[in-house]
Amino acid sequence: MVASSSWGAPSSCGEAALHYAQQGIPVFPVKGKIPYANTRGFYDATTDPDLIGWWWRRWPDANLAVPTGQASGWVALDIDGRHGGFTSLTVLKALLSQQREEVHHAHLPTLPATRVARTGSGLHLIYQTPSSALRNHVRCAGLDGIDLRGEGGYIVVAPSLHPNGRRYSWSQNIAPAPFPSRLLALLQQSERFRHREAAYLHSVRQLDSQEYPLRSQQNPDYWLEKAVQHACVGKRHTCALWLSCRLVEQAHLTYRQAEPYMRRYVERVPCGEEEYPLSDALNCLHWAIAHLAS
């Protein structure tokens, strides 16, 4: 792991590339953010000073990139302010805080202090790669403006020049912290839920094929009643997802406004051998907010 005291601020990307390499971090050149033609991108990343020197003699204006994942030991949360990333980061911290309280670790921070880079339009939060392979995620936990760069990815690093004229820079010069276990669990849960919802969407579309009075479509109570009418054991989750979509798309509710309707839905649907879990209903609402909210 790279010691925080070893990181300076070389003035050129060529010098910086050698500096990263000396710390054991493989690098490769990019044109803006894209690998050069006839190169293999992050597959070419190296710590070989001779090859690095040759690259920057060939492309003296090249930006500098680092592969994420096992190659560098880094995983990055990419916060893009142009697409609501800072708002989503606040939501992510709230989700992690809720998860933290549920397991009775309220004294722990939601996101540990770690190495932070300023990009042209946001931040990179750099963490150590977890023991289990963590691949790239777009819209982490369904949140706009937050992507994860892991296996098969890379990030542009300081002192590269962003297309908007700003330089990438390190703003929190400490060693990368271990990847937060609660965030890892949230990503894994989100991925499982994403695959699960894809299987339910066909049934949801069948419910949507029915015609509903236009005057009622902005009334959340109307959608709640319809969902409860259709719900039966075996269809409770389909109807929960359908209700979530209607509350967001038709009634234009926020998460806070829609949550009480999901709770009432759970209270009213048939129990069968087991009660329908509130957590599943709220996951449906999270999915609808992430994918359908305007």
UniProtKB/TrEMBL annotation:
InterPro entries: DNA_primase/pol_bifunc_N. Residues 17-183 form the DNA primase/polymerase bifunctional N-terminal domain. SMART domains: Prim-Pol. Pfam families: Prim-Pol. It comes from the Bacteria. This is DNA primase/polymerase bifunctional N-terminal domain-containing protein. It comes from Reticulibacter mediterranei.
